[in-house]
Design a protein that fits this description.
Elements lengths: L1 H11 L13 H18 L3 H11 L5 H17 L3 H14 L4 H13 L3 H13 L4 H13 L6 E12 L10 E2 L6 E2 L9 E12 L1 E4 L2 E13 L7 E14 L2 E14 L2 E17 L3 E14 L7 E15 L2 E12 L8 E14 L2 E14 L11 E13 L7 E14 L6 E12 L2
Helix pairs in contact: 1-8, 2-3, 3-4, 4-5, 5-6, 6-7
Length: 437
């Protein structure tokens, strides 16, 4: 059914066309002739020559010529089996022409084949936000409902440098008031700045077990590493779940576990069961709800052992072909053997992004409230926190290398607590690489 819909899209939306040749502009005539030569080279079994000519035309001063050459180059690369390069080429075209619906739909189709279903759905919403002819809009809606990742396995890797003003998220106070006497904090218990390296990645497989059902095992890991190894923070997870398509909706239950190490020593182990549900809301928006229950065991302090329950609802919307945003509401309940470590919290976060040419800029803001069940023995008050976080970043696709582009993120976080040991301020920058599409 998907191939039929894609053919219908190809017929319904015309491909970009080069600017008309004008007798007074030799450059325009030369560009049209070069397109003809490239098409002839490909038909004659010389795709390398065709690729060279399309790449030369992609640097033409005329925006229409650049658009046509990138579109034809993307199609050529796809026919050669170089789908990631094709997707990057379509992305570069959309950087200049965000309203090119045909190209955005081609990119969505490629992203689906590459296993990035979330990005594919986002491109569809951006296309629909720009407005489509009624017949095409109906086909796109059917395509979105039928969208499934067919990639049998996949992997991702992210690396970055992270200058951080507070690597251990600790207070900068030298002493804390307690019910016994002022407590002098050691140097390691106070805020420490450092330059860290961040690495994260995942590997997954997708095993179909029925037309609308797949088994998905997944392993992932991430870590922050510093010159002073006692602040290293590493975690690894293994999950196995199902992906169940229910018409336009998607249901994903999973179970698994996570092990965390801090300073090179085991810190906590968690066994988790989770479920999330994706539901389209019209053509521009999507609702995602999730629920998690976990049992956590802390190596260094058994009084913190308990259950963790978390629920979240996220609403994502495309505002235009170049902009979008999301709102997430969440709530968490942490139980513990010692009521002083048991907490309840809730919060909200906002995300907004906008594309400016070949740069994507985003901003985030979050607010969270946390309260403890009882006061800890040493401290005079029950824990009550307000956490505020702000962030901004940009991805620079103009500087991409082999499908990856540099990314810069800046983060600021402030946690104010009635228990001084939990009060901290943190500023961090992340300089790394991300996939360019």
């Amino acid at each position: 059914m998907t191939q039929t819909m894609l053919l219908a899209l190809a017929l319904a939306l015309p491909a970009p066309t080069p600017a008309p040749a004008q007798a007074t502009e030799q450059r325009q005539v030369s560009a049209v002739e070069l397109f003809a030569l490239a098409a002839k080279a490909e038909a004659g079994g010389r795709p390398g020559d065709a690729e060279t000519m399309y790449r030369a035309l992609a640097r033409d001063p005329d925006a229409e010529v650049r658009a046509e050459s990138r579109f034809r180059l993307g199609q050529l690369l796809e026919r050669l089996g170089r789908r990631r390069e094709a997707a990057t080429t379509y992305r570069a075209l959309l950087d200049e022409k965000p309203d090119a619906a045909r190209v955005r739909l081609e990119l969505a189709r490629l992203l689906t084949q590459l296993g990035d279903e979330g990005a594919a759905r986002r491109e569809l919403r951006q296309a629909q936000a720009g407005g489509l002819p009624p017949r095409v809009a109906q086909i796109v809606d059917q395509f979105a409902a039928a969208l499934r990742s067919r990639k049998p396995w996949g992997a991702s890797l992210e690396v970055a440098l992270v200058p951080d003003s507070n690597v251990n998220r600790a207070t900068d106070a030298a002493t804390l008031d307690t019910v016994l006497a002022p407590l002098q904090l050691s140097r390691d218990a106070r805020a420490r700045a450092g330059l860290g390296a961040h690495a994260g990645g995942q590997l997954y497989a997708r095993v179909p077990v029925a037309p609308d059902l797949a088994l998905v095992p997944r392993i992932s890991g991430q870590g922050d590493f510093y010159r002073e190894g006692r602040f290293d923070d590493v975690s690894a997870s293994a999950l196995v779940g199902l992906e169940w398509s229910l018409g336009r909706d998607r249901l994903r239950p999973s179970i698994g576990g996570t092990q965390r190490w801090y300073g090179g020593s085991p810190y906590a182990r968690t066994a988790t069961a989770a479920i999330d549900w994706q539901h389209p809301l019209g053509t521009r928006a999507q609702l995602t709800t999730s629920a998690t229950i976990a049992g956590t065991r802390y190596r260094g302090n058994a009084l913190q052992n308990g259950a963790l329950l978390n629920g979240a609802v996220a609403y994502e919307r495309a505002f235009s072909p170049r902009a979008g945003g999301s709102l997430t509401l969440s709530a968490t309940r942490q139980t513990a053997r010692d009521p002083g470590y048991a907490t309840a919290s809730g919060g909200a976060s906002l995300l907004g992004w906008h594309e400016f040419g070949r740069t994507t800029v985003y901003a985030t803001a979050g607010l969270r409230r946390l309260e403890g069940d009882a006061r800890l023995f040493l401290f005079p008050e029950r824990r009550k926190d307000w956490n505020v976080s702000l962030g901004a970043g940009a991805t620079f696709r103009r500087l991409q290398l082999h499908g990856f582009a540099p990314v810069l993120r800046l983060d600021w976080e402030r946690n104010h607590s009635t228990v001084g040991i939990y009060t901290y301020t943190r500023k961090a920058a992340t300089i790394g690489l991300t996939r360019a599409f």
